[in-house]
Design brief:
- The complex is a heterodimer of chains A (about 220) and B (about 325).
- With about 220 residues, chain A is an all-alpha fold.
- Chain A has ten helices and no strands.
- The longest helix of chain A is centred in the first third of the chain and has 35 residues.
- By secondary structure, chain B is of the alpha/beta class.
- In chain B, about 45% of the residues lie in helices and about 20% in strands.
- Chain B has a six-stranded mixed beta sheet, sandwiched between helices. In chain B, strands 2-1-4-5 form a four-stranded antiparallel beta sheet, with helices on one face.
- In chain B, helix 1 crosses helix 3.
- The longest helix of chain B has 24 residues.
- The chains are: A mainly alpha (about 220), B alpha/beta (about 325).
- The interface between A and B is medium-sized, with 20 and 26 residues.
């Protein structure tokens, strides 16, 4: 049986797993952006928090993913449902690039622009919303792009704790020494990553300040 | 509040002018105006600043102002020491000095981008610490060397910044933007929709000036406004600004290390050196001064003259 035949025969299962995978990644990104962007802003406002916050995110990044899933399993509320646990662990991984790029984007705003904004009588909130955030969007998107590609990859490992997704095929294929099965998980995951990378790259370029603004 | 006061004094000045005209043309009309209250302004008017006195009413005052920074090791670095300086309404004061003399520090104390470590800075008679910093800054135009134009805003949006923050009605904002661009010599229809990166350095500096003037502030602060321009553009814009300055009638404080700029634009030159005020001169006094730093600056001008002399000698 050729690979194409295999894919055709199992298209519904593959599609369903891809759907699960996208769902895992989407929720993870939603949470990591909701947490990471404010933390990134906070780091630029309270420089002394920079070390603990970025350090913490850095440490989370270094824990091997399989081990992290295992560690979190006995945690009371978390361990109850595999998807819940997977999303929390994946969010921890996605945080670092988002926090780092948000703060780097804001710190990268031309000091003259910030000074002019303040000198012109903008409040701190106005400087943030009208100047610093718009000017750091493209850097922030770059961080989100890295985090998304990263999450699509690591999410396959979430299948080890039964959270579903494309990793199911990979683990099953490994157990059964069936390359077709492994590829049924790996190829869609790779395509997803490429697609996400392409789309977010497009957005990043569009939002880059000074580069043919979208208005 | 001060805005209202300003408005009042403008109104009463106008009333005074009006009643003076009426008095000249219709001597008997005064009695009828008396009752209406317009003449109340007339009786107050002599105490109001008139043109001749305009130069003497203080608008910015530095009272024994010291500003120091504390570096990482807790050492204090003094950027400004016991500065006493008064800027009168309508004058153009140039803060002249070499880099690190404390000029920019002094300038930033006026719109409270910095706060004095000791002493007091007063704007319109009120300590900057008593002003709401946002309200204070919106009443003061601010132009910096790097322009600080918002790269994600069009020229029109950049100029409209303060009027929009002040919630002017859109029609008024638009009219004001057109008016200002024309004032700084940029054709509105060509430039309104451009972005700063599509402009030349000189054009950017013009937009920066238009933006600072947008809400018609009484005070204009300029930090090396022409410093980033090539010499020819610089001379051109400086000359235009000189003409514009006369029409605007604003109190202007300019920071520069360029003696040409100081002599050409200033009605008064405050010379600064290592955080201290060395002296304050009229441009003519400055060129004749014996004070060492002033003399060093003035010598720069003469050096150019010297260069020219042998050449013109050869021609003869």
């Amino acid at each position: 049986m050729s690979l194409a035949e295999f894919f055709l025969r199992h298209r519904l299962e593959i599609l369903q797993s891809t759907g699960e995978h996208v769902w895992l990644v989407a929720l993870t990104m939603l949470f990591s952006i909701a947490i990471g962007v404010p933390l990134g802003i906070l780091v630029t406002r309270r420089p002394w928090l920079s070390k603990p916050i970025l350090g913490g995110a850095n440490i989370a990044e270094t824990i091997p993913s399989l081990a992290l899933f295992g560690f979190l399993l006995p945690v009371p509320w978390l361990g109850d449902r595999a998807t819940r646990l997977a999303i929390v662990a994946l969010t921890l991984y996605a945080l670092l690039p988002i926090i780092r790029n948000t703060s780097a984007g804001i710190s990268g705003v031309d000091p003259a622009v910030r000074e002019a904004a303040r000198g012109m009588g903008m409040t701190d909130a106005q400087v943030l919303w009208r100047v610093e955030l718009p000017l750091s969007f493209s850097t922030m998107i770059a961080g989100i792009r890295v985090a998304t590609v990263l999450t699509i990859g690591i999410a396959t490992i979430a299948a080890a704790i039964g959270a579903g997704g494309l990793g199911e095929f990979i683990f099953r294929g490994l157990a059964m020494v069936d390359n077709h099965l492994i590829l049924a998980g790996a190829i869609p995951a790779a395509l997803l990553a490429l697609l996400a990378d392409f789309l977010l790259g497009l957005l990043e370029r569009r939002l880059r300040p000074g580069a043919s603004p979208a208005r | 509040m001060a805005g209202v006061n300003d408005e009042l004094s403008r109104v009463s000045k106008n009333e005074f002018a009006l009643s003076a005209v009426i008095r000249l043309t219709h001597p008997d009309a005064i009695a009828s105006l008396d009752a209406s209250g317009a003449v109340r302004a007339c009786t107050h008017a002599p105490s109001l600043p008139m043109n001749a006195e305009a130069g003497r009413e203080p608008i910015i005052e530095f009272r024994n102002v010291t500003y120091h920074l504390r570096d990482g090791d807790g050492h204090q670095k003094s950027l400004l020491e016991s500065l006493n300086l008064t800027v009168s309404r309508g004058e153009t004061l140039v803060l002249l000095g070499r880099s690190g003399a404390g000029k920019t520090t002094a300038l930033k104390l006026i719109n409270r981008l910095l706060e004095p470590s000791r002493g007091e800075v007063l704007v319109e008679g009120k300590s900057i610490l008593a002003w709401d910093p946002i309200a204070l800054r919106r009443r003061i135009g601010y132009v910096i060397q790097e322009t600080g134009l918002f790269p994600h805003y069009t020229v029109a949006e950049n100029v409209a910044l303060v009027p929009r923050l002040e919630r002017w009605p859109p029609a008024r904002v638009q009219a004001r933007v057109d008016e200002l661009l024309a004032l700084v010599g940029l054709a509105p229809e060509t430039f309104l929709r451009r972005y700063p990166h599509e402009l030349s350095g000189g054009q950017r500096q013009r937009v920066g000036l238009a933006r600072a003037l947008a809400a018609d502030p009484a005070i204009l602060l300029m930090d090396e406004p022409f410093g980033a321009l090539d010499p020819l553009t610089r001379t051109e814009i400086r000359r235009e600004f000189q003409a514009l300055k006369q029409r605007l009638g604003k109190t202007i404080v300019i920071v520069t290390h360029d003696i040409h700029e100081a002599v050409l634009l200033g009605t008064r030159i405050a010379l600064m050196d290592s955080g201290k005020l060395t002296g304050s001169f009229s441009p003519e006094q400055f060129l004749d001064s014996n004070e060492p730093v002033a003399a060093a600056f003035a010598a720069q001008l003469r050096e150019l003259e010297k260069l020219r002399e042998p050449q013109s000698g050869e021609h003869r």
